[in-house]
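An example makes the point: we print one protein in full, the chain in one-letter code, the fold tokenised, without further comment:
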Amino acid sequence: MLTSYRRILAVPGALRFSLTGLVARLPISMVGLGIVLLVSAATGSYGVAGAVSAAYMVANAILAILQGRLVDRLGQAPVLSFASVVFGVAMVLLIWSVQGDWPIATSYVLAGLAGASLPQIGSCVRARWSHVLASPDDVQTAYALEAVADEAVFILGPIVVTVLATAVHPIAGLATAIVAGVGGSLAFAAQTGTEPPAHPHDRSHGPRPSLPWRTVIPLATVCAALGVLFGAAEVTTVAFAEEQGNRAYAGGLLALWALGSLLSGVVTGVVRWQRGPTIRVRWGAFAMACVMAPLYFVGSVPVMGVALLIAGVAIAPTMVATLSLTEQSVPSGRLTEGMAIMQTGLVAGVAPGATVSGLVVDHHGASAAYLVSICAGVIAAVAAQVLPRAD
């Protein structure tokens, strides 16, 4: 099984940019929660803390596509280097503003600036794999490797930031995220030997190659629906654990969900698929809806752990197929932008999913709130059917 991974990591420079990309992505799962822990400790208000964190996430979702477009035009090194410095400075000033009791509006602005400048490493590392690998099967393996890395980030990040913020100091978790984000991004950007070429637009050569919107729009809708599914399931699982008498179980339940995805991601990378990514996106989105359905009926923590582990198995193959289809459909000169659109769809869906499921929990309980995730999975499955039938 490991032969496929050894082959792609043996490509000169591949192991270095994959590892630095992993480190640079840690802020994705650390900063939002870290802001909540920092601001709530300083102000005593979870409402204010959530609003500041939301400013960070909304700005990130809105401007990620613009950053992806700039990367395609100017190259990864200059854009990521500049963005990482702005991100680091904004985060330091945000911490300073909270600890120094500056006007809360300042914290909102700085959180928005930090979110807007967060380096889009996930999109860039996948574009880099597409550049250094010639075989579609190898690109599939590389995307599976990065899906595993994403799951590792989302398992480790919240644990690290929570432990540091609660056991050491409220600043410690965010400080670690800043070091990882800035240091990892600069180290990643410095590896110019594996960097895809920039594609500056020369108007004398006509318009830029257009994006295949008939594929991009349904695919982005799939991603947004899955974002809703993820955000809703996280909040609902926390509420479920609390209803069962111990909120601390929530972390373990969500870790099992991520573990299922991580394991399936490892397997996905070594499978030589007979059908193309369009078919796999359709079946993957359908599977996401199906595997969430049993959660509505579960009434105990052990059974929920097993159900979430099984449900997680559908995540990585679906996401790998989604990004593989993006890589095959989008012009090379706009690949990072295309990847950023999919990542933005995921991020943009999380907050609405969490909000709606929270309202359902308040009025009807945790079990009913899993219906939000099921409905989101159905929407993703329907959107996937609209994809052009290329394979």
